Amino acid sequence: MKNILLPLFLICSFYGMSQAELNKYKYIIVPTKFEAFKSENQYQTSTLIKYNLVENGFTAVYDNDMPVDLVANRCIGLLLSLKDDSSMFTTKVTLILKDCLSNVVYTTVEGVSKEKDYKSAYSEAIKECFKSLSGVGYKFEPSGDNVPPTVSFKNDVKRIEEKGSVQSKQNIPNPVVQQKATLEEQSYKNMEPVQSNITKAENSMETAPAQVAYKSDIATVLYAQPIANGYQLVDSTPKIAMWMWKTSVANVFIAQAYNAAEDGIIVKKGDKWYFEYYENEKLVGQELNIKF
Question: Is the distance from CB of 62 to CB of 40 less than 8 angstroms?
Fold first, then answer.
């Protein structure tokens, strides 16, 4: 009985750990061409693997058609590779799942087939591999480690304000009464502020809006991805182009380019979005093609 229970316990523990690891990842990326083959989807291996992944509850995507959130954060997906150890008369394959740092997260059992026809042989072997994936009970569980990184300067501003406030309290005395009470000198001086008799001018100065020189190149499409208090704009390469944070004014955002060379605002005028910033003391603007 002990000889039976111990292997069962080890198998259950293995599947439990495998499920916990796989649940961290939202997608499985299937190559349209595996390194073991000469052409795309040879013997229909890519389509067969993607089909079986979906049948077992995974969200599978091809490497040439990844969703926007996966393009922005490659680490929420696992890349599937196919290890081919076939010989002249036997087809042997193993499916391996690796994270964005090429660490192996999961390896299936080896699928074996003795079919002579290559398409039938790889189909049978791949189905054998999925016997170890069909029982893991996968369910994606988002956590702090598998969400897109965001950038926020809110706390930095608050920290600077708090620091300035503490220093002002420590270093700048503000007594209401100044008095001396010694045998040599006795005095009393009221330091309370006196109300000013200066009145506010009736007509305050109003400044005219600055003239903007707009650039009209809108060939680059930027995809807006929600972050804390705003969006990050990602192009199709994929690469984060800039960040935009909400303000108290609707359709006006504080903006920062990824390379930190240009800071300004993103504002909506009519049905178009513009990035406005100063360049050599001149206000310039760039029309943006943003997809929300």
Answer: no
pTM over 0.85: no
Cα angle 28-29-33, degrees, rounded to a multiple of 5: 140
Phi, psi dihedral angles at 70 (to 5 degrees): -75, -35
Q: For 158-201, write each residue's pLDDT tens digit.
A: 444 555 555 544 554 555 555 555 555 555 555 666 666 665 55
Compute the distance between CA of residue 284 and CA of residue 269 in angstroms, rounded to an integer.
15
Q: Of 64, 27, 57, give the one whose Cα is nearest residue 139.
A: 57
Confidence check: pLDDT of 150 > 80: no
pLDDT of 185 reads 53
Q: Which domains does the chain have, with CATH numbers?
A: 7-129 (3.40.50), 213-291 (no CATH)
